[in-house]
């Protein structure tokens, strides 16, 4: 198949894309317009959590599309209620509002916290977030993010997101004033390069927010749905947050997200929140297929085995190449390199022949791994062997 440049020119330019078109995907593999196959360790940034086109997801979407796609969020539909019950049953949250992206779910979390502040905390509205955090690309979620440069990109920012430092409780305490309503964080900072909040920090943060009457919001857009080896990453520290957001893996590749909250926090009144596509049965049916696959007996055990295999393999590579080790939780891992050659490794991996490999470097000296949760042991071994070969080539 030919690469069609005219189509490229019809798209708004927002990022540098390689000159290839993906035409097909299956499990951990993608195929481009030339028929070349790629082992995919990015999976759309932890989105296609069951790999590409998993049969259970394809079937759920196909069957649902035949009967009902979107009756409007002004009416109940069965798949949305069935998925909401599954999420509340598996978590400490009582109610769910479905959205279409992580940014939209976080925007909803921010609105819910501000509304709660108006009703319960005499107008408190500030939400403490973290340096290098990532919460999405709407104006409010960009303001909540701590990505360098984002404070001025679309200035003026949305007000009320002072930044603390991850794993530094004093930096949080120093920011609390009578206008503070919540603290919001990713249990593992993904875009920042896979930086986990420590168990002690999560527990101390819960203690602090409880004492101060503040909400604790966990952004589990990247870490939720089994990614870290538990269904939700907050469960590693045994705490109960007040609000959680989900996206990415929850839809297995389709646009689905969720804002989850404990009953006491659900203060939206009619008209405060909504959205034309929110909670439509087509996407929530997809969500049910993903949820049930992840929660099938034995599935999470194998995720944890594969994660251990990946971790051990990355550590061995690190030792061999004199790198700085690896880190992460479950199937969200990073190789900490000794040099800033991440971009070169990503490119050489993609260009590898006859088969390529898709990798991600969130920072110049960090490679991030977000494989399908159901990647096989052989595929992980293959990825590690190829990575070794690619590092050798880049560093030759
Ligand atoms: C990807 C991501 C988002 C944004 O999700 P979108 O669906 O791209 O809007 C928000 N928070 C975290 C932690 C993410 O990883």
Indicate the topology.
Elements: H1 5-9, E1 22-26, E2 29-32, E3 37-40, H2 43-46, H3 55-67, H4 78-90, E4 95-99, H5 102-120, E5 126-130, H6 139-144, H7 150-153, E6 163-164, H8 169-173, E7 180-185, E8 188-189, E9 195-196, H9 199-212, E10 215-219, E11 243-246, E12 257-261, H10 281-294, H11 299-321, E13 326-329, E14 332-336, H12 342-351, E15 356-358, E16 360-363, E17 366-369, H13 377-394
Parallel strand pairs: 3-15, 5-6, 5-7, 7-10, 10-11
Antiparallel strand pairs: 1-2, 2-3, 4-12, 8-9, 11-12, 13-14, 14-17, 16-17
The structure holds pyridoxal-5'-phosphate (PLP).
The site of pyridoxal-5'-phosphate (PLP) has 14 residues, from helix 5.
Structural class: alpha/beta
Bulk shape:
globular
The CATH class of the largest domain turns out to be Alpha Beta
Looking across the biggest beta sheet, what order are the strands in?
Answer: 4-12-11-10-7-5-6
Q: How many helices? A: 13
Bound molecules: pyridoxal-5'-phosphate
Contiguous uncertain segments of 5+ residues: none
What is the name of the CATH superfamily of the largest domain?
Type I PLP-dependent aspartate aminotransferase-like (Major domain)
The percent range for strand residues is 15-25%
The Rg value, from CA coordinates, equals: 21 Å
- Spell out the helices and strands N to C: HEEEHHHEHEHHEHEEEHEEEHHEEHEEEH
Largest sheet: 7 strands, mixed
Q: Which architecture of the largest domain per CATH?
A: 3-Layer(aba) Sandwich
- Helical coverage, percent range: 25-40%
End-to-end separation in angstroms reads: 34 Å
The total count of strands amounts to 17
CATH topology of the largest domain: Aspartate Aminotransferase, domain 2
How many structural domains does the protein architecture include? 2
Mean pLDDT: 97
